[in-house]
Amino acid sequence: MKKKFSFVFFHSLGFKIAFVILCIGIIPFLVCVPISLGVYESVSIHTDATNLMAQAISYNSKLVTSGYVTGEENSIMDKELKAVADSYNGRILIVNSTLKIIKDSFQADIGKTVIWENIIYSMQGESLYYYDKHTNYLIVSVPLANSDGDTVGVLVINKSMDYLQQNRDMFISYFLISSVIIVALSLIVGVFSFIYFSRPMKKMAKSLDSIIREYESILPEQKSYNELENISSKFNEIIGKLHSIDESRQEFVSNVSHELKTPLTSMKVLADSLNGSDDVPIEMYREFMTDIGAEIDRETKIINDLLSLVRMDKSGAQLNISAVNINELIEHILKRLKPIADKADIEVVYESFRPVVAEVDEVKFTLVITNLVENAIKYNNEGGWVHISLNSDHQFFYIKVEDNGLGIPEDSVEHIFERFYRADKSHSREIGGTGLGLAITKSSIAMHKGEIKVRSKLGEGSTFDIRIPLSYIEKEVQ
Ligand code: ADP
Fold first, then answer.
1. Residue 201: inside a domain, yes or no?
2. Separation of 317 CA from ligand 1 center, angstroms?
3. Where among 282, 309, 336 does a domain terminate?
4. Are 331 and 425 in the same domain?
5. Mean pLDDT, range 163-176, rounded to an integer
6. Per-residue pLDDT tens digits for 398-412
7. What is residue 429's predicted lDDT score, i.e. its pLDDT?
8. Which of 438, 443, 458 to mutate to test the pocket of ligand 1 (most atoms within 8 A of CB)?
9. Domain count of the chain?
10. Which domain holds residue 406?
11. Does residue 248 sit in the same domain as residue 380?
12. How far is the CA of 250 from the centre of ligand 1 (A)?
């Protein structure tokens, strides 16, 4: 199903890169602009207030000594204060000790009483300022003191702070312009970095396509960035594994066909020779039919072993776990194998160090012990011995199968667990080996999360050590 373009775009690397760059560009901007605006405003207000207070204080003696503060007429002073008020686009008031306005640069409120917190505090000797956000005025109130230090009135200066608003507007318009530029730049950088960074990925996707279509067998080495090189080498590992799985599958199929064909060929030869000759004596018939029967048994054994192996195949296999008395299980198996051992005059000794009950799949685990003990009997000399021992600790149980038989050639030891591998082909065939027993054993042990180790010396014998957890813990689903 085709995904909608917009959906694909929002999930694309390009969009994500552009978004990150945009955030990196715009977030500090969004945080810094209001903070700097606030700082700028409060610094400006404070500076202006300090300057106004200094100016007001400088008028103190002039206003007090001239009696202006007590209401004396002084047209020069009137003009001077008016000029100062006009320069601030504001207003100057002088309030006397009874909170009455006695001078007003607007001449509007003379004689009126003013009751305002700051003026009352200033009347007690404090210089204060207040910024009125709504009217955008800065109001400074400074006490006017006589030579004895007594406050005789308050000088109030209003200053218009319109310039703050203008600067703020200018700041915001610069901010908006910069934001547009940052957004545009982020998008451009995002698009270019997407093109740059996605190029190796596209190349890789193309190589993967040709691997899917089987034009190539590995991803070509590409110099891009470490992460992608890593992924590409992991892909090559997976591809390598798939190739080797495919090869081993093909090898397995050809081995299976070969193994199944051999008894059939023998049967055909036997049957043809019986059919091709007239007056075959009954003894010869019997002998050939016995041989055909043996070949059928062999074919059956190969098929049974193959079925066990397939059932054991890790991916599909399921274990039927139950608490099994391992001592009893071994004794039972040895009882079954006793006739074969007796036939070859082999002494089988079983030694158990303690009773062991473990969580295993009885059927699959029986195959493990049967195969190991059967091999120790099969690949032995007449009059030889097989020792089996069982032990355990708090976590695992240990089984050792030791024989003083033929032993395994050094270069074969690492291969004996492979399917259809036989160290000594002619002997193995002679005694009815399929080459699958140890492969089954190993798979079963792996399913029980155990381990198997082998030590062997040609001509002296072999020892197989297995270690299995007493409790079966299923792999947790992640
Ligand atoms: P097979 O059915 O041929 O016995 P296995 O998978 O059981 O197949 O064993 C693989 C090969 O390992 C055997 O063909 C044999 O050569 C060798 N082998 C296994 N167990 C022993 C042993 N106890 N002593 C000597 N050789 C052994």
1. no
2. 24
3. 309
4. yes
5. 89
6. 999 999 999 999 999
7. 64
8. 438
9. 2
10. 319-469
11. no
12. 23
Q: What is the pLDDT of residues 49-84, one digit of tens each?
A: 999 999 999 988 888 888 888 888 888 888 988 999
By three-state DSSP, how is residue 163 classified? helix
pLDDT classification of 428: cutoffs 50, 70, 90: low
> Using CA positions, which residue lies closest to atom 19 of ligand 1?
375
Residues 281, 413, single domain; the answer is no
Model confidence at 336, pLDDT cuts 50, 70, 90, reads very high
Q: Contact at 8 Å (CB) between 376 and 462? A: yes
Contact in structure between 263 and 296 (CB atoms under 8 Å): yes
Residue 335 shares a structural domain with residue 242: no
Cβ < 6 Å from ligand 1: which residues? Answer: 371, 375-376, 379, 403, 405-408, 416, 421-424, 428, 433-439, 462
Instruction: Tell me how far the alpha carbon of residue 435 lies from the centroid of ligand 1, in angstroms.
Output: 7
pTM of the model: 0.58
Instruction: Look up residue 352 and give its two tokens.
Output: 């158990």
Phi and psi, residue 59, nearest 5°: -85, -15
Residue of the nearest CA to atom 7 in ligand 1? 437
CA of 375 to the centre of ligand 1 (A): 6
Q: Which of 402, 422, 444 to mutate to test the pocket of ligand 1 (most atoms within 8 A of CB)?
A: 422
CB atoms within 10 A of CB 238: 9
Ligand 1 atom nearest 407 alpha carbon? 25
In tens, the pLDDT along 98-133 reads 999 999 999 888 999 998 999 999 999 999 999 998
In a domain, 139, yes or no: no
Residue 249's domain is classified under what CATH number?
1.10.287.130
* pLDDT value at residue 444: 93
Which stretches does DSSP call E strand in 44-136? 91-96, 101-104, 128-132
> How remote is the CA of residue 319 from the centroid of ligand 1, in Å?
25
Q: Which of 275, 309, 343 is the last residue of a domain?
A: 309
Domain membership flag for residue 419: yes
User: Does one domain contain both 283 and 406?
Assistant: no
- 342 with 455, same domain: the answer is yes
Please check whether residue 338 lies inside any domain of the structure: yes
Averaged pLDDT for residues 285-307: 91
- What is the residue-wise DSSP string for 195-260? HHHHHHHHHHHHHHHHHHTTS-SSPPP--S-HHHHHHHHHHHHHHHHHHHHHHHHHHHHHHHHHHH
Residues 297 and 334 in one domain: no
Mutation test of ligand 1: which of 302, 346, 370, 379 has the most ligand atoms closer than 8 Å to its C-beta? 379
246 & 365 share domain: no
Confidence of residue 473 (pLDDT cuts 50, 70, 90): confident
The whole-angstrom distance between residue 222's C-alpha and the CA centroid of its chain comes to 24
- Among residues 327, 324, 414, 419, the alpha carbon closest in space to that of 364 is found at 324
The CATH number of the domain holding residue 382 is: 3.30.565.10
- pLDDT tier at 23 (50, 70, 90 boundaries)? confident
